[in-house]
Specification:
Helix content is about 30%, strand content about 25%. The protein is an alpha/beta fold.
């Protein structure tokens, strides 16, 4: 009878790597993508923020975010360990049009997405919604109510964004961890509903 090789016993006893789930967080410039990643990540997020300079004048639209002095130039990255068997990786996209080329790389392998919108500048979210829809990637919409600022009803917002009725939309403050959790749970529920829906 052959004796098992010692390395075989070690391999059999070694724990398997946890399953990884990738979620993309998108939206216009200054809507709160970096803030959302930071509010829910269990680790200090990786950020690629740089200060806005005179070179961005006339290029980046600061309407509604006049006090913003930094911008994401590549991505934000965070992690949530759901269980020993499941880890969620969060990737925040840059918001300015000149960095949109990064989206095509960041979306690879994404299971779903979160689009963050600001009611003061809803038009900045159209590109993100179109991006997910054109690639058939399920997503939920987060209406970021800074300091509870919101002048529109949910129905008005949904109509303005031309959202499909089945796309979940939640209103809250992305600085609050509980809201970030609710967004992730809503996305999971949405993915499960789509998986259970009859084909055709």
């Amino acid at each position: 009878m052959a004796t098992p090789h010692p390395s075989s016993a070690v391999d059999a006893a070694a724990p398997s790597a946890p399953a990884a789930v990738k979620i993309l967080i998108a939206g216009g410039f200054g809507v709160g993508k970096t803030t959302l990643v930071g509010s829910v990540s269990e680790v200090t997020p990786l950020r690629t923020e740089e200060y806005l300079t005179r070179a961005s004048v006339g290029v980046d639209d600061l309407s509604g975010v006049d006090q913003k002095d930094t911008t994401t130039v590549a991505l934000d990255f965070g992690r949530i360990t759901v269980s020993p068997d499941l880890v969620v990786y969060l990737f925040g996209t840059p918001g300015q049009e000149r960095f949109w080329f990064m989206w095509n790389d960041l979306v690879n392998g994404a299971l779903g997405g979160i689009v963050i919108a600001d009611t003061r500048r809803l038009d900045t979210s159209f590109a993100s919604i179109d991006f997910f829809e054109s690639r058939g990637i399920p997503f939920v919409v987060a209406i970021n109510c800074f300091h509870s600022h919101n002048t529109r009803t949910p129905d008005e917002i949904r109509a303005a964004l031309d959202l499909d009725p089945q796309v979940p939309m939640l209103l809250g403050d992305v600085r609050e961890r509980a809201f970030g959790r609710d967004l992730l749970l809503a996305l999971v529920d949405h993915l499960m509903d789509l998986a259970a829906a009859p084909v055709g």
